[in-house]
Amino acid sequence: MSIPKLVIAGTHSGAGKTTVTMGLLKLLSKRMNVQSFKIGPDYIDPSFHTYITGEKCRNLDSFLLEENTIKYLFNKNSKGKDVSIVEGVMGLFDGAKPDNDLGSTAHVAKILKAPVILVVDAKAMARSSAAIVKGYSEFDSDLQVQGVIFNRVSSEAHYELLKAAVEAYTDIKPFGYVKNDAAITLPSRHLGLIPSVEQEGLNERLDLLASSMERTIDVDGLLELAATPDSTQELHYLEPSITPLGRKIKVAVAFDEAFNFYYWDNLDLLRAYGASIHFFSPLRDQMLPEDVDLLYIGGGFPEVYMKELENNRSMRLSILENLERGLYCIAECGGYMYLTNEIEDLDGNKASMVGFINGKSKMTERLQRFGYANLELADSSLYGIAGRKIKVHEFHRSIVELEEEKDLLFNMNKIRNGRESKWQSGMQKYHTLCGYPHIHWYSNFEFIENLLNVI
Questions:
Q1: Would you say residue 243 lies in a domain?
Q2: Helix, strand, or coil here: 207?
Q3: Which residues pair with 252 in a beta bridge?
Q4: Do 205 and 262 fall into the same domain?
Q5: In the predicted model, is pLDDT for residue 193 greater than 80?
Q6: pLDDT for residue 209
Q7: What average pLDDT does the segment 235-239 reach?
Q8: What is the predicted pLDDT for the residue at 202?
Q9: How many helices (H) and strands (E) does the chain have?
Q10: What CATH number does the domain containing 420 carry?
């Protein structure tokens, strides 16, 4: 299947790739059916993509997923779409390791055989932009850096200087620029952009961004590049073998402003095995959906909504009673925090949570265990027998202080700059498995298959 595609990459985090991607998605969605992807283990940027296009944004991650899986998920989710836009992660070559491209935007772009548009923060810059573009375009000869878009440009005259410099020293085509305008900047907090579900006036801000970019970006030129024969090379892959369970499983998924960190391919995988998905809100609903076989509480920002979660006592009791009766449950990161006795914020304010896990969650000033890691089951659990492994990601600014004796379920390790770090994480209580690691089940089908087979 030939799929027009582009990868939008940045020179570094904060260069403006998310701004460019969102503006481009907004413009293209007016004209055609667009599928978006986000490279790396990100939940917040994809929420904006989904908001803009109306199609669920999908994650592509070459640390968590094998190359064949990336090609499969890209083709599966791009089927029937007019163009696929892939937003990168961090800087173009930044990934899991400093000496190779594993987990980087560059790696995924090469797997997809996709042309790359480099986004450069050009504030207070002119001829130096050519050196940056030249270096990035020549660093990896297997990578197709085909164009550049400049961000935070002060004027048309400023762009003309940047364009002339790049054209004088490189063969890379400038496709335009984004103005340096606070009115099109989206607000952030401790884990990145404030999620789309929380932002008032988002439509107006996105319309303003798209309107501005429509005047300064060569959108038709980008579409032509996305549709060239080199860009639409067919990706060869093996489709994974998924055998439905042959029985119905009802899965309740917590989804609202407090809990919305999910890999959408995980939910599709549940459906492929025969499960039905039923969303509910721990903030607003009074109790869990009836006759649930599995409860799935993903990550999010329970600390931001801890008073509202506390005030919904009916839901907290509904979850507690069901878990104590043996309901199967997977709780990741924010979901894990929600199951503890209470959450304490940085100011010492506290709010009662579900109380199934005897302990409390405390917010911290610094990130904890940030980045990719390898997970091994220390003991047999809902995810399978001891020794089973999977690649995961952690990204949180909290800790859980347990006040009950529990064997920690996950042996974790990561290697950074040649040094290995080891720690233990996670726990299982009754039929509830919880911990901080975020798991993409396409990384190891055995985990989700074992869970579904024991329900």
A1: no
A2: helix
A3: 278, 295
A4: no
A5: no
A6: 94
A7: 94
A8: 81
A9: 13, 24
A10: 3.40.50.880
Q: Is 57 a catalytic residue?
A: no
pTM exceeding 0.85: yes
Question: Using H for helix, E for strand and C for coil, what is the string for 363-393?
Answer: EEEEEEEEEEEEEEECCCECCECCCCEEEEE
Asked if residue 150 and residue 12 are part of one domain, the reply reads yes
C-beta pairs of 381-386 under 8 Å, 24+ apart in sequence: 381/409, 381/428, 381/433, 382/328, 382/330, 382/428, 382/431, 382/433, 382/450, 382/451, 382/454, 383/433, 383/447, 383/450, 383/451, 384/446, 384/447, 384/450
Give the structural domain span for 356: 249-454
Asked, for residue 259, whether it belongs to a domain, the answer is yes
CATH assignment of the domain containing 116? 3.40.50.300
**Nearest alpha carbon to residue 372 among 398, 391, 396:** 391
User: Among 117-131, 172-186, 269-283, which is the least confidently predicted range?
Assistant: 172-186
143 assigned to some structural domain: yes
CA–CA distance, 172 with 59 (Å, rounded to integer): 28
Are 271 and 208 part of one and the same domain?
no
Tell me the mean pLDDT in the region 316-323: 98
Length of the chain equals 455
- 218 with 267, same domain? no
pLDDT of 368 higher than 80: no
Q: Distance between CA atoms of 110 and 261, rounded to whole angstroms? A: 27
206 and 307: one domain? Answer: no
Mean pLDDT for the stretch of residues 385-404: 93
